Amino acid sequence: MNFELTKEQSFVRQMVRNFAETEVEPLAAEIDAEHRFPVETVEKMAKYGLLGIPFPTELEGAGGDHISYAITVEELSRVCASTGVICSAHTSLCCWPIFAWGNKEQKEKYLPDLLSGRKLGAFGLTEPGAGTDAAGQQTKADDMGDYWLLNGSKVFITNGGYADTFVVMAMTDKSKGTRGISAFIVEKGDEGFSIGKTEDKLGICASSTTELIFVDCKIPKDRLLGKVGDGFKVAMSTLDGGRIGIASQALGIAQGAFDVTVEYMQARKQFGKKLSQMQALQFGMADLKTKIEAARLLIYRAADMKDKHMDYSEAAAMAKLFAAETAMEVTTKCVQYHGGYGYTKDYPVERMMRDAKITEIYEGTSEVQRMVIAGKTFKK
Amino acid sequence: MAFKVLVCAKQVPDTNEIKINPETGTLIRDGVPSILNPDDANALEEALKLKDKYEDVTVHVVTMGPPQAETMIFECLAMGADEGIIVSDRAVGGSDTWATSNAISAAIKKFGDYDMIFAGRQAIDGDTAQVGPQIAEKLNLPQVTYVEEFDISEDRKEVTVKRQLEDGYELIKVATPCMLTCIKELNQPRYMNMKGIFNKNKDIKIWNAADIEVDLATVGLKASPTNVYKSFTPKPKGKGMMLAGDTEKELAQDLLIRLKKKHVI
């Protein structure tokens, strides 16, 4: 057991914190207010190798590990949760399934562009009528001999409006339920594929969340990811890893809110003393700090298990459940400790509180995480 | 044709984080992070920009310090340098600027074939700005200090630099190889790159006094002609004040009122 970061991981933290504070933080309030996807930040993340961290260098990845990836999403989200999830959805939900499930040709065709950040990735599972109940997929892919024909739509797709490469689930055999789902690689510009509505959201406003629409969309045969019927396994294994990313996002939001609140409490005076000198508030902050640290340990453990190719599904669910609920609690309390100022947009904590909520919802709600954990507990 | 660029760098305590013990007047170094000296980061950036521009450019960072300096070299390599050389030996410990430049110029002589040397103007711990110029003298190289702009000719035999002065600047043409000491206005240093951080084949060499073939009588504490006679902590100055007013007349008026209140006039 070793609780110390490696030299590389420490440098990743130093580098991404510096990058986030210099390049990301100055934009955070503005892109939130304008609901603007930060294309310029994505280009910078690509330039410095932040979009392919836990993948081999032969495919133009950085050759890093999943703890380093978690630290990256955490540090980005500490100042801007929208930027954090751009990195997370790209890495965990698009690059990873192609890396883990793709054949040699698919990996060589798609990963160099994705891992270097020349192209951005997204993942499409959720549908208007199939959220947690993924088996209710209505999007279907018909085998037309020479090609697949996709029809249907996906909703709430992170990076949707700006992605070039999509991993999309569709039903290839309705009668088989989840075993009838298959995974496909869809490219921007494919005939019959378009981006629908862009969602107007409570938080992570600078993240592009869109609908994907498939109308007689022709997909070449070589775009099937895994085998026919593997789609559900592709999706579930992808989400296991995605949860490490979202847990890291939640952790970053919580840490960011905590840090600005520490600063605020040392400056703000009431009743002739600083808020930081009031024991009720001190104790509140002590509790929050403890929970943040507990979330961090759960996340790094899940990431470490993933690196060691252990079954990390339950660990990732615990990490995401705890980190997301911690983020919600920390940000809510931090707004409270800021008083009226915390409710205004002059301080970042209101944005962090709005951003925190999504972490309890996407890539498996907190209820789903409990289902995963309970399932592991009571399996026969 | 390879074009080798050397960068002289130093690991320094982050003086933004440093506090002075008011009783003893000495630095409190506990828990103070060590960083790449800021001006040296500008020197490295200028070298890396040459590497971006020309395929055959290689960047080699040379430093002198304890083995912990490897952390700083790691950072330089993660930013894009090709090789790091640490001159590390008890024999060179305690060197002042004269002894340090003896050791580093010996290391550079051992390195051999170089086409350019960049150094930071000065290190934030000693603030002497002497080591760069001394190395240039000992290597018999032309030098330009306080470089704020840099341009290199097509054949790379000549560089044009803008040298910052207190009340203006000089434009200087100088033949390569030469020594340039860099200031923060020169460029914005890049971040480390993830691929650089995870590169497992980092080329880090540690050279001792024997490796650099330096005369031991010219390095280390005993060989250093500098003696610290006394050091003191300057008393913090009082807070400055800003005069209020939109026009010159209003500002002057405000000043007069303040001076009168203090019975100065």
Give a written overview of the molecule.
The complex is a heterodimer of chains A (380) and B (265). Chain A has 380 residues and is of the alpha+beta class. Chain A has ten helices and ten strands. In chain A, strands 1-4-5-8 form a four-stranded mixed sheet. Chain A has a four-stranded antiparallel sheet with strand order 2-3-7-6, covered by helices on one side. In chain A, a hairpin with a 3-residue loop joins strand 2 (140-143) and strand 3. The longest helix of chain A is centred in the middle third of the chain and has 37 residues, at 231-267. Chain A is globular, with a radius of gyration of 21 Å. Chain B has 265 residues and is an alpha/beta fold. Chain B has two domains: 3-218, Rossmann fold; 238-265. Helices cover 26% and strands 26% of the residues of chain B. In chain B, the strands form three sheets. Chain B has a nine-stranded mixed sheet, with helices on both faces. A two-stranded antiparallel sheet of chain B has the order 2-5. In chain B, helix 3 packs across helix 4. The longest helix of chain B has 16 residues, at 38-53. The relative contact order of chain B is 0.17. The model of chain B has no long low-confidence stretch (mean pLDDT 92). The interface between A and B is medium-sized, with 18 and 14 residues.
Number of helices of chain B: 6
Query: What's the N-to-C terminus distance of chain A?
Result: 30 Å
CATH-defined superfamily of the largest domain in chain B: HUPs
* Oligomeric category: heterodimer
CATH topology of the largest domain in chain B: Rossmann fold
The rough form of chain A would be described as globular
Strand order within the widest sheet of chain B? 11-10-9-12-8-1-6-7-13
- The mean pLDDT of chain B is 92
Q: What's the CATH architecture name of the largest domain in chain B?
A: 3-Layer(aba) Sandwich
Broad structural category of chain B: alpha/beta
Order of secondary-structure elements of chain B:
EEEEEHEHEHEHEEEEHEH
Q: Per DSSP, what share of the residues of chain A sits in E-state strands of 2 or more residues?
A: 15-25%
End-to-end distance of chain B: 72 Å
| CA-based gyration radius of chain A | 21 Å
**Helix/strand class of chain A:** alpha+beta
Radius of gyration of chain B: 22 Å
